[in-house]
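Progress note, sequence design subtask.
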């Protein structure tokens, strides 16, 4: 036995164990074969060295280098039959125990037949495209309807090779998706080679009237079915699975249902209960098991049945880390899915046995829960006024209710029943109050801010809860100010320093908060007044005026002279209001806007065409809309007047209706026969629909009648029905007053009949009698 050492071989230059003669084991075997006459010494065709060459004329070192892919150019030339000159460089190799270096000949020179070459994948020459075989998946006219449904096919890998040259819609995109998947999985070109052929077969097997691939058609492919299913889904070329036309109970085979996994059903079909379950339900990912099946409340039928039996585990049958399977047919558990009396289906757990079991478990679990550690104690002061975060509260694991909290919740439920509301419709309000009193208790009043923050979550509602807590005195109202009022105060702070106190006093007067009582204006109007006056005050301050007592009429006229039309009027009105308020509060000596008069055109009232009012009363749908139309068209009541009418203002025994107008005398309306009949009809309907409402207003809607804060109806509730007919409350009121003014020249008559001011009455008289009315000398 010859001794070996690590060195470089004298023939192939491979580093590794060599014999005493300096040869590696491969070259040593070559010398033995030379002695037997199988090989000979010659110059290598590639490197030019004199060594032992094989049948292909190359030395062992060159064959090792070529097998390792170190000279791709020479290998391609050898495969294509081209000869390259010798003297090419040779990369030395390293021999490691256990790693075999292939040095087989490239071809046999005696026969001229080339051996099967297995080059590295990166060294392969691109194979020319194969011509399309029209006999494989015969191409049809796109969009043409098929006479027969697609039949099952038996594809082989050879069929994929024969249609490589076919161009199909969606193939480039699908191949790009497959390349992405290959990069994700770390596979090479062989995987793409076989998967691409199967992808071509899947696209070629599509019917001519469909652009997507059916999942059931992938069963005909020879391989790569799950991979192509995922790739088609990513590329958007996968259609929805068609339901089986043959019911599962008509088949003779036995297996498990693919949805509920119940036994004694045909393989890859659905049992009868699952078919009934999925008739009117959309498919989606189950919240518990993740399978894409028909759902109810985000759960499939199998998970609903399993949760109903083992969620609370009253019988101790729940498994740890697995689900219990069941038999199908008459032994399978059933869940009632029929709608209830109101036409709606029950929740996740159904009704009867399962619902009773869940109710018992809920009562048992609630009785064992501890009391909340965040209960608000009476007299406890608040350390930091921070808003609570109710977004992470789990309503399914609420703390136990204290006796006072249970009393408040029972009182709210009784309050709902007294009003005649349906408890099912107000379940979101009950849920909101239960969460609040469970965490905070009921010993102290609840903050309105907490109710509103909690009501922002889905399936929560806080409007009824706020009203109930306000009526019972258990609500701490928000200290938030009106947005328009806050903006007006900020504009006053931004005014020049000498004018800040005066502007704040002006806002107090407009808001009715001054020392002397006054009728408050709307916050939006106050904010608009301050916004229009602010640039004017800043300009006066820059001009050297440091006190509003120094403002004269000339300053006001110069400011208004630069403006025209409605723009000048929009500034003159708040300036006049500012100086009148300061004069009233005795902050200035005289009003500089008293003698300022702006000239402009006045719009005269215009009557409505006669055909606009014919048959309107019969076209209005409800009694409330008919009453609003008559009050506007006969008694000239505006929408604001109608919204403020109270039940106490109606005197049916005398046929009178009192209209309350803040800051003015009350106006009495004498009801005619039509108005009296419609008023009686509306009050009867109001009592029938909302017998327990406490809203004192005459006109109510379904929302305002059940609101304990007693709001007025929205203006759209009065005008919406008239807008559909092309009418407006204002135009009806103007038409009625103008029609009455045409029959009289007495302004006192208009004042008494409609409760108008003298100026407004004269305006209508001038419009009705333009030739017989003298101009007013005081109107300027």
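Output:
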């Amino acid at each position: 036995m010859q001794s070996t050492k690590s060195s470089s071989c004298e023939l192939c230059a491979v580093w590794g164990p060599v014999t005493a003669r300096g040869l590696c084991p491969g070259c040593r075997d070559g010398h033995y074969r030379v002695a037997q006459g199988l090989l000979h010494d010659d110059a290598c065709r590639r490197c030019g060295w004199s060594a032992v060459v094989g049948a292909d004329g190359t030395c062992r070192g060159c064959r090792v280098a070529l097998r390792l892919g170190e000279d791709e150019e020479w290998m391609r030339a050898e495969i294509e039959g081209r000869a390259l000159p010798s003297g090419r460089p040779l990369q030395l190799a390293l021999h490691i125990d256990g790693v075999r270096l292939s040095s087989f000949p490239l071809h046999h020179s005696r026969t001229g037949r080339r051996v099967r070459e297995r080059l590295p994948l990166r060294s392969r020459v691109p194979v020319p495209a194969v011509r399309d075989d029209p006999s494989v998946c015969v191409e049809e006219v796109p969009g043409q309807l098929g006479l027969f449904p697609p039949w099952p096919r038996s594809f082989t890998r050879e069929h994929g090779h024969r249609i490589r040259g076919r161009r199909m819609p969606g193939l480039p995109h699908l191949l790009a998706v497959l390349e992405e998947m290959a990069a994700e999985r770390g596979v090479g070109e062989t995987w793409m080679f076989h998967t691409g052929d199967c992808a071509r077969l899947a696209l070629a097997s599509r019917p001519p009237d469909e652009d997507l691939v059916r999942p059931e058609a992938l069963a005909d492919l020879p391989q790569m079915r799950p991979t192509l299913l995922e790739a088609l889904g990513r590329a958007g070329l996968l259609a929805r699975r068609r339901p089986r036309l043959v019911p599962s109970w008509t088949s003779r085979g036995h297996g498990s249902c693919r949805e509920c996994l119940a036994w004694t059903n045909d393989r890859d079909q659905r049992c009868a209960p699952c078919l009934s379950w999925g008739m009117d339900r959309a498919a989606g990912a189950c919240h518990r098991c993740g399978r894409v099946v028909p759902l109810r409340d985000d759960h499939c039928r199998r998970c609903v049945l399993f949760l109903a039996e083992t969620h609370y585990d009253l019988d101790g049958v729940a498994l740890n880390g697995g689900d219990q399977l069941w038999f199908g047919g008459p032994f399978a558990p059933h869940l009632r899915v029929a709608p209830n009396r109101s036409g709606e289906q029950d929740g996740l757990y159904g009704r009867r046995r399962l619902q009773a079991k869940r109710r018992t478990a809920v009562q048992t679990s609630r009785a064992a829960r501890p009391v909340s550690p965040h209960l608000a104690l009476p007299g406890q002061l608040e350390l930091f006024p921070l808003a609570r975060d109710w977004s992470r509260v789990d309503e399914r694991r609420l703390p136990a209710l204290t006796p006072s909290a249970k009393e408040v919740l029972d009182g709210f439920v009784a309050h709902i029943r007294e009003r005649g509301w349906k408890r099912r419709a107000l379940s979101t309000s009950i849920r909101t109050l239960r969460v609040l009193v469970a965490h905070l208790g009921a010993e102290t009043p609840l903050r309105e801010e907490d109710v509103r923050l909690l009501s922002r979550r889905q399936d929560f509602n806080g409007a009824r809860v706020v009203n109930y807590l306000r009526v019972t005195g258990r609500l701490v109202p928000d200290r938030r100010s009106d947005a328009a009022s806050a903006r007006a105060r900020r504009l006053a702070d931004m005014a020049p320093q000498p004018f800040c106190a005066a502007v704040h006093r002006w806002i107090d007067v407009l808001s009715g908060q001054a020392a002397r009582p006054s009728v408050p204006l709307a916050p939006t109007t106050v904010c608009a007044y301050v916004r229009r006056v602010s640039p004017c005050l800043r300009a006066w301050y820059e001009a050297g005026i440091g006190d509003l007592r120094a403002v004269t009429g000339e300053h006001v006229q110069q400011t208004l002279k630069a403006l025209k039309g409605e723009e000048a009027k929009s500034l003159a009105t708040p300036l006049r209001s500012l100086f009148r308020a300061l004069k009233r509060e005795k902050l200035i000596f005289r009003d500089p806007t008293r003698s300022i008069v702006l000239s402009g055109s006045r719009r005269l009232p215009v009557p409505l065409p006669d055909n606009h009012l014919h048959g309107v009363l019969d076209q209005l749908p409800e009694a409330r809309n008919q009453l609003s139309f008559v009050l506007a068209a006969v008694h000239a009541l505006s929408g604001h007047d109608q919204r403020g009418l109270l039940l106490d203002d109606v005197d049916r025994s005398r046929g009178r209706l009192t209209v309350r107008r803040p800051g003015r005398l009350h106006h009495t309306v004498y009801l005619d026969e039509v108005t009296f009949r419609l008023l009686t009809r509306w009050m009867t309907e109001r009592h029938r629909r909302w017998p327990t409402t406490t809203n004192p207003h005459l006109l109510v809607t379904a929302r305002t009648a059940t609101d304990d804060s007693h709001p007025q109806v929205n203006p759209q509730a009065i005008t919406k029905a008239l807008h559909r007919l092309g009418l407006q409350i204002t135009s009806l009121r103007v038409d009625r007053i103008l029609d009455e003014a045409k029959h009289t020249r007495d302004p006192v008559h208009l004042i008494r009949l409609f409760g108008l001011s003298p100026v407004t009455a004269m305006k209508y008289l001038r419009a009705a009698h333009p030739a017989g009315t003298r101009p007013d000398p005081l109107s300027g």
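Residues 109-129, 246-252 have pLDDT under 50 and may be disordered. Work on this subtask will continue into the next period as scheduled.
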